[in-house]
Automatic annotation (TrEMBL):
It is an enzyme of class 4 (lyase). It comes from the Eukaryota. Its EC number is 4.3.2.9. It comes from Timema podura (Walking stick). Keywords: Lyase. Coiled coil: none annotated. This is gamma-glutamylcyclotransferase. The keyword Phosphoprotein does not apply.
Amino acid sequence: MSQVTTDKSLHVGFKRSNYRLDFNAPSYKTWGGCPATIVPHKNKHVWGAVWEIDKASLPDLDRQEGVHEGIYFPIQVNVTSPHGEVLECVSYQLVNTPPFLDEGESLPVHRRPSQIYLQVGALHFICTC
């Protein structure tokens, strides 16, 4: 599978409010573990990086993220920089949304991130230009 590449800039430290990072679904060969997703969760937030890509690359990114296979679907999100700048971006959410966890409940073993994800270590938002 080819990956979308960009010579555009990467910005780190962006926050998406009222969402949490989670993992779900069966293990995928690509990651060797559960894929990541963001899910709505009041008073929580996730931090991530923003990649700027050409709008024409979005269909390729959809294919890379498995939209055509029913793994993810794209969502529009607003993310905020540490300086208060708000950007409208695209993120990808798993079709198979993980069940809600009670406060203080740990991720079950079958929903923990793969070693590959931990090495990559960042949630990404996409901003088109």
